[in-house]
Amino acid sequence: MQASVDLMLAIKDTMKPLVDQGMSMDEVLAQNPLSVFEKFAWFHIPTERMTMIIYCLLAEN
Questions:
Q1: What is the mean pLDDT of each run of 10 residues along the chain (61 residues)?
Q2: With contact defined as beta carbons under 8 Å apart, do 47 and 17 qualify?
Q3: Which residues contact 50 (CB under 8 A, 6 or more apart)?
Q4: Is the dihedral of CA 54, 55, 57, 61 positive or negative?
């Protein structure tokens, strides 16, 4: 369980600065910031979709 929490915190730390800079979703997708986490897989969710989900969660806060 802690590994999952650590993974999500690392993802947040990777993406939050991009959102805070005001980058659009398309700009963030172009950078593919979650590519370094692909080894952990998202089960049936493609990395692009996971990036979009995380972007939306961070952008609304």
A1: 88 96 97 88 82 95 70
A2: no
A3: 34, 42
A4: positive
Distance set, CA 43 to CA 7, 9, 40 (Å): 14, 18, 9
Please give, one letter per residue, the 3-state secondary structure of 27-49: HHHHHCHHHHHHHHCCCCCCHHH
Both structure tokens of 3:
């590994």
pTM metric for this prediction: 0.85
36: tokens are 């370094």
| SS3 assignment, position 24 | coil
